[in-house]
Amino acid sequence: MLSLVFQSFLLCFLLCSHTHANQPIIFQLTADVYSEPIPIDAFTDDWVYPYLKQGEAAFAQGKMELIQTYQQQTYRIFWQYDYWLKFTPDAAKLYYQYANDDIPEQKKYYDLGIRAVHLDMVGFRWDNQYLLRPNWSMTYGVSLLKAAHTIDGRFSGGALGQSANNFKDYAQRINASLDYWYDQPALHEEELAWLPDVTDGLGFSTYVSISGQLSDQLKVQVQVDDIYGEIHWKDLARTQYHLNYDVDGRPLYQITGQLSQSRKIQRIPTSGLWKFEYQPWLTHPLQATVGCQHNLSANLCQLGVSYPWAGYRIGALLEPTSSAVGVSIDGGWFELKYLADHLNTNQAHRMGMSLVAHYLW
Residue 32 contacts by C-beta under 8 Å, 6 or more apart in sequence? Predict the structure, then answer.
């Protein structure tokens, strides 16, 4: 079903492209990954790593687009992948200790909280640009969406430890709740013979961007993605459980909850960015930029400087929050950016790349 919808979106894009065949088609690919507590490789594998950093966020985002612009209108077909995680430092620490067979601190209370949102979808977006005043414009866009996969939920509670020689005997008291929606089980619910058949979700989202010049030397852009968006699911699966455990209690533990399916209107989390571009001297091509991107998990800011060389504009990037550095190359018909906080990708906490290519029929 998803492939049929994607083919429909592609047909709409091709029809628009055929109408404006003298305009270039732009291919755009972006990918951003970030893990605060441990490197990305360990975070996505088994959490086994020599040490744990203080942290409460992780995310993975990817987007692939075909774009065509004609006058004030832009059409695009895209695939988008988002996975946002926000957790308490105690939750990251306890899971790290469990994965590394490290006995936790004695008599310590752990504040446990995890917020997870995942969306995998394709869409078609139409944008229209409006002139607000000279050198200032606003772009408003609407997307039609088809979602194939999702996870949306929370885990919350607390745990108190006791003296123990192994992790299994460490818990003294646990009070925790789990409530999450999904199209495919993520916590081994299939072992309870729970195999829900979930149909793809349909939805929409809106986008707005404002850009302009504050002076001859200073440009600004503010962009908000999914300023309001919804995915409608007809029969999304849901797991709800509550655990109450007390080593001195009788019974030792109580588990209540249910597995179910029902209609769900899922809000798409809002994300966005802002950016300033500054040219210190009008007669000199040096440019400096500062900007921040914001999502459900983290806020990451970047500093950049670029200068033309041998027909290209070469730039250097710095992201203070993640200690990542990168390079950018703009060749007119293509743009490339790469950013990382470590040359060894197995030890990197932050990686990002983008590629833009222009093609004229």
Answer: 59, 60, 61, 62, 293, 351, 352
- Cα 158 to Cα 114: distance, rounded to the nearest angstrom: 12
Q: Which two tokens stand for residue 28?
A: 């755009």
CA distance 195 to 212: 52
pLDDT digits (tens, 9 = 90+) for 287-299: 999 999 999 999 9
Side-chain-side CA neighbours of 167 within 13 Å: the count stands at 11
The predicted-structure confidence for 127-155, as pLDDT tens digits, reads as follows 999 999 889 999 999 999 999 999 999 99
pLDDT digits (tens, 9 = 90+) for 148-206: 999 999 999 999 888 777 777 788 899 999 999 999 999 999 998 999 999 999 999 99
C-alpha–C-alpha distance, residues 231 and 135, integer Å: 36
Q: What percent of the chain has pLDDT over 90?
A: 70
What's the rounded Cα separation, in Å, for the pair 260 and 258? 6
Report the pLDDT averaged over residues 40-64.
92
Nearest of 345, 348, 327, 344 to residue 336 by alpha carbon: 327
Dist CA 136 CA 47 (whole Å): 48
Residue 345's SS3 state is helix
Cis-peptide into 37, omega within 30 deg:
no
Q: Please check whether residue 161 is in contact with residue 171, taking contact to mean a CB–CB distance below 8 angstroms.
A: yes
Half-sphere exposure of 222 (CA within 13 A, CB side): 7
Concatenated DSSP letters of 96-145: HHHHTT-PPPTT-EEEEEEEEEEEEEEEEEEEEEEEEETTEEEEEEEEEE
Of 107 and 264, the structure prediction assigns the larger pLDDT to 264
Chain centroid to Cα 306, Å, comes to: 27
Residue 48 to residues 16, 73, 342: CA-CA distances in angstroms?
A: 50, 49, 18
| Contacts (Cβ under 8 Å, ≥6 apart) of 36 | 53, 54, 55, 56, 57, 58, 298, 349
